[in-house]
Amino acid sequence: MALSRIEVIDTSLVQIGAEPLQSESAAGAETHILTFNSIVGYCLSVNPWHWNTVTRQLPRLDAAPLRYWRYQYERPADMLGAPRAYYASADNRQPFTDVDLNDGTIQTNAEQLWLKMDKRSTPDAWPAYFVTLIETALQARFALSVREDSALSERLEQRAFGTPQEDRRGGLMGQALGLDAQSKPSPRINMGRDPFTSARWES
To answer: Using CA atoms, how far apart are residues 191 and 120, in angstroms rounded to an integer?
Structure first.
């Protein structure tokens, strides 16, 4: 069963001894959802998570921009933060920089355009370690807003993000960053054909 936003919120509430909402239409749910969205938006945007970064070909709009550029493309509704990179060819090898964000669209002279971006993903797409990070960060907020327990809130905040000296990249966030780094493929450097190596393996 896919993990939902309300399940993450309720798990976090129960963990600090508070009553679960059970529904996003329950009294007070709006405030909790705003807290959830704030924490998730922050945690997703602080790192180009391998599992949350996608590259898409953008749909070109029929109408041309009013000035300067030949084409304009639709900005993805689920894009989180700023674009990671643009590409003008399908191989996505060479980043393309001759673009501009205007009037909610992406404008350029390129006839085709691909965008690498972070997306606003939902809990069912998160790895388990990221779910734990979000739940712990929510517990820290709820400990203060629901329980009014500042000491508990500080302990949970440190568990989620580490000490102040770690600049919010310690604790569970640090573990998540490390696990994500391990999951990324190593870049392959193509130095061309080596005749000595080739002769060794082809003999």
So the answer is: 37
Question: How many whole angstroms separate alpha carbon 73 and alpha carbon 92?
Answer: 17
Q: For residue 168, which of 33, 47, 35 has the smallest C-alpha distance? A: 47
CA distance 126 to 44: 10
Q: How far apart are CA 201 and CA 135, in angstroms?
A: 52
Alpha-carbon distance of 139 to 43, in angstroms, equals: 15
Q: How far apart are CA 78 and CA 118, in angstroms?
A: 8
Q: What is the DSSP string of 132-164?
A: HHHHHHHHHHHHHHTS--HHHHHHHHHHHH--G
Q: At what angle do helices 150-161 and 128-145 cross, to 10 degrees?
A: 160
Rounded to whole angstroms, the maximal C-alpha distance in the chain is: 75
Structural domain spans, the chain: 5-48+122-183, 52-119
Residue 38 DSSP SS3: helix
Q: What is the pLDDT of residues 10-54, one digit of tens each?
A: 999 999 999 999 999 999 899 999 999 999 999 999 999 999 999
| Residue 156: band (very low, low, confident or very high) from pLDDT cuts 50, 70, 90 | very high
